[in-house]
């Protein structure tokens, strides 16, 4: 079968590989849509923790089931599924605490094991969720980032009737905006330095869209830093209302550092919370997507053939589209 491969030298190639072998606990899926995200850019550019090079990327995907292992229940050949890419061990302390994304032996699809940028991909049966194909292939591939955004919103420990700021109008920022409004946030402001993204932020439910320099002395009860950019994080730290919460969603470099005034954290009773990956929210995201699919579809921008993966990466780097996806036609 054909597959995209990224080597340890970060070169992208299309190669011929053996098709995955069906094991008793797995499925073989033929992908039909796959998103590209910041993790993929890290893998292509300078590496991402846990990457097993050479790797076939692709962790935000949906497709049709080609074969079902004998130990897998509730899924049959031909089913349309979205896939949770986090493959956990199931028995370490974090798995026992129902935090599989923190698993000591986490091996994500498309990072630590072969991903969906291929004609076929093997996935654990428990990681596949049957979804209605009528929501659209591209929307189904957004369920994984939606699960990440759902985890971020739940990490805020209460969103209803609160004043919210979202830093970054990328996929994570806008999905977080959609969820915050869906769950009753009183007001959501989205900030992004690219004015071209302001219109879509308003279209999916933001009350206000602004550039960073338009923020003055406002204070927000909940802030989501979804930009993964140091200027955004520094600005966010100065905009938290007393007793407010900052949820760190954006992925920064492993060596990045920012100054925090501990006296302000103490005096204002601030909370700074990390939100890593999708936790245990994939099933919830499958259900939620049925309610917000029309809004989510507005995030899908440029679509490339999977075999033009390098071009798709360049398009995402340009920042013109919110969500760049791969097709398999």
Description of the structure:
Residues 172-290 form the Alcohol dehydrogenase-like C-terminal domain. This is Alcohol dehydrogenase. One of its GO terms (molecular function) is zinc ion binding. Belongs to the zinc-containing alcohol dehydrogenase family. The protein is α/β, with parallel strands linked by helices. The protein has 2 domains: 2-142 and 299-327, Alpha-Beta Complex (Quinone Oxidoreductase, Chain A, domain 1), CATH 3.90.180; 147-274, NAD(P)-binding Rossmann-like Domain (Rossmann fold), CATH 3.40.50.720. Helices cover 27% and strands 26% of the residues. It has helices spanning 38-45, 93-96, 137-140, 143-155, 171-182, 198-203, 230-237, 262-268, 282-297, 309-318; strands spanning 2-6, 12-16, 26-36, 60-68, 80-83, 121-124, 128-130, 163-167, 187-191, 208-210, 220-225, 240-248, 271-274, 300-305, 323-327. The strands form 3 sheets. Strands 3, 4, 5, 6, 7, 14 and 15 form a 7-stranded mixed β-sheet that branches. A 6-stranded parallel β-sheet has the order 10-9-8-11-12-13, with helices on both faces. Strands 1-2 form a two-stranded antiparallel sheet. α4 packs across α5 and α4 (143-155) crosses α9 (282-297). The radius of gyration is 20 Å and the shape is globular. The two termini are 15 Å apart. The relative contact order is 0.16.
């Amino acid at each position: 079968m054909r597959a995209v491969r990224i080597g340890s030298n970060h070169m992208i190639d299309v190669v011929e590989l053996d098709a995955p072998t069906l094991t008793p606990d797995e499925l073989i899926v033929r992908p039909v849509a796959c998103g590209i995200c910041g993790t993929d850019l890290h893998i292509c550019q300078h590496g991402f923790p846990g990457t097993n090079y050479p790797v076939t990327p692709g962790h935000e995907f949906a497709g049709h089931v080609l074969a079902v292992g004998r130990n897998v229940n509730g899924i049959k050949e031909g089913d349309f599924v979205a896939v949770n890419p986090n493959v956990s061990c199931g028995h370490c302390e974090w798995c026992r605490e129902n935090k599989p994304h923190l698993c000591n032996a986490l091996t994500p699809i498309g990072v630590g094991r072969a991903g969906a940028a291929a004609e076929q991909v093997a996935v654990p049966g428990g990681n596949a969720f049957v979804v209605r194909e009528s929501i659209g292939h591209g929307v189904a591939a957004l369920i994984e980032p939606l699960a990440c955004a759902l985890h971020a919103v739940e990490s805020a420990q209460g969103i209803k009737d609160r004043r919210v700021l979202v830093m970054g109008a990328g996929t994570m920022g806008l999905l977080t905006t959609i969820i915050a409004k869906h769950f009753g946030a009183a007001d959501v402001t989205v900030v992004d330095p690219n004015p071209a993204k302001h219109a879509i932020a308003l279209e999916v439910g933001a009350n206000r869209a602004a550039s960073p320099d338009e923020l003055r002395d406002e204070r927000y009860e909940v802030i989501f830093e979804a930009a993964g950019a140091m200027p955004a994080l520094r600005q966010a730290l100065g905009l938290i209302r007393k007793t407010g919460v900052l949820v760190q969603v954006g992925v920064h470099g492993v060596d990045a550092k920012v100054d925090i005034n501990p006296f302000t954290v103490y005096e204002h009773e601030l909370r700074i919370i990390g939100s890593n990956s999708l936790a245990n929210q994939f099933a919830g995201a499958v259900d939620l997507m049925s309610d917000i699919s029309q809004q989510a579809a507005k995030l899908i921008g440029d679509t490339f053939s999977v075999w033009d993966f390098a071009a798709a990466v360049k398009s995402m780097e340009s920042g013109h589209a919110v969500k760049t996806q791969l097709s398999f036609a």
